[in-house]
Amino acid sequence: MMFCLNVRSRRLSAESELLQKIALFALFLFVLGRGSTVAQPVYPNVFTTPAYDIECTFAPLAGPELSCERFGERHLRFVLGPTGHASIFIVSSEDGCCSTENVLDPGMTWSQGPFVCRYARSGLTCERERHGFRIGKRVVVAY
């Protein structure tokens, strides 16, 4: 009878050990999943210039894509995708600018994915691998 009890005790111990391993694995997956949702980029997906005349939006799932809108008498949209030159579009809209949460002050740089934007008092320049656009007060260029 002692032998039977001993075998049964070992079987319970093995099942208990298996359950512990499964629980630890599930906990590992949970922590790993939470870590990946928390480890998002620290840079904002939308930023604006201090004059609130330019607002840029980064869309990581769109290829990725960076688009900036210049508001004013002539509303323009600048789009820089994952490949090729930037494009400029005239927008028929009287919408006003901008989000006030993430302001890119002169001398600051914003980067996300393959894009880098630099803001100076003379304007905003955004690039991806030598392609990009420049939005100045008087001159706008896409390249």
Unreliable runs: 1-12, 24-43
Number of helices: 1
For the biggest β-sheet, the strand order reads 1-2-3-4-5
Structural domain tally: 2
Order of helices and strands: HEEEEEEEEEE
What structural category do the secondary elements indicate?
A: alpha+beta
Chain-averaged pLDDT: 79
In whole angstroms, how far apart are the ends? 87 Å
By oligomeric state, this entry counts as single chain
Specify the overall morphology: elongated
Question: How big is the Rg?
Answer: 27 Å
What's the number of extended β-strand segments? 10
Q: Tell me the helix content.
A: 25-40%
The amount of beta strand, in percent, is 25-35%
Description:
This protein has 143 residues and is α+β, with helices and mostly antiparallel strands. It folds into two domains: 1-40; 46-142, no CATH class. Helices cover 26% and strands 34% of the residues. It has one helix spanning 2-38, and strands at residues 46-48, 54-59, 65-70, 76-80, 87-90, 109-112, 115-120, 123-128, 131-136, 140-142. The strands form two sheets. A five-stranded antiparallel beta sheet has the order 1-2-3-4-5, with no helix packed on it. A five-stranded antiparallel beta sheet has the order 6-7-8-9-10, with no helix packed on it. The model is unreliable at 1-12 and 24-43 (pLDDT under 50).
